[in-house]
């Protein structure tokens, strides 16, 4: 094999490896049967959530996955696949699951979330969770609740005291 072609392939494997390694989540989907318009719609939805969908040759992706030690993901890398990467652990799962409900031809195969290989069912369970902003607002309301209760108690005590005349 030509040395420059070999070097290009090694660089591509390294690029895939870095994308997967630096992502909060990676999801493998099969897009067989989707029209160009549907794929464009999916990519647009993913981009709005800060996700990226890329199509690589399976052999290159398999080499990158082997380098990272995610051998459980290898069986999912057959057929026409796309890799979706996201910094957020939930965003890609949520967008893909929502799209798959409308378009049965999109098949969620497996993924990697927080350095753990997960199956399609686990990805769908993740999709049911609220997004990062939703989780933060829930957390903040938990922090705010005791303070609000204390403030209401102090106000109730102050209201119950007879007003002192000056």
Order of strands, main sheet, comes to 2-3-1-4-5
Q: How does the major sheet shape up?
A: 5 strands, antiparallel
Sequence of secondary-structure elements:
HEHEHEHEEHH
How many domains in all?
2
| Quaternary class | single chain
CATH topology (fold) name of the largest domain: Alpha-Beta Plaits
Q: Could you estimate the helical fraction of the residues in percent?
A: 55-70%
Top-tier CATH class of the largest domain: Alpha Beta
Residue-averaged pLDDT: 87
How much strand content do the residues show? 15-25%
Structural class: alpha+beta
User: What Rg do the Cα atoms give?
Assistant: 24 Å
Second-tier CATH architecture of the largest domain: 2-Layer Sandwich
Q: What is the helix tally?
A: 6
Number of strands: 5
What would your notes on this structure say?
The chain is α+β, with helices and mostly antiparallel strands. The chain has two domains: 3-129, 2-Layer Sandwich (Alpha-Beta Plaits); 130-166. Helix content is 56%, strand content 16%. The chain has six helices and five strands, in the order H-E-H-E-H-E-H-E-E-H-H. The protein has helices at residues 3-22, 36-48, 58-68, 91-102, 120-127, 132-160, and strands at residues 25-30, 51-54, 81-86, 107-113, 116-119. Strands 2-3-1-4-5 form a five-stranded antiparallel beta sheet. Strand 4 and strand 5 (116-119) form a beta hairpin. Helix 1 packs across helix 3 and helix 4 (91-102) packs across helix 5. The model has no long low-confidence stretch (mean pLDDT 87).
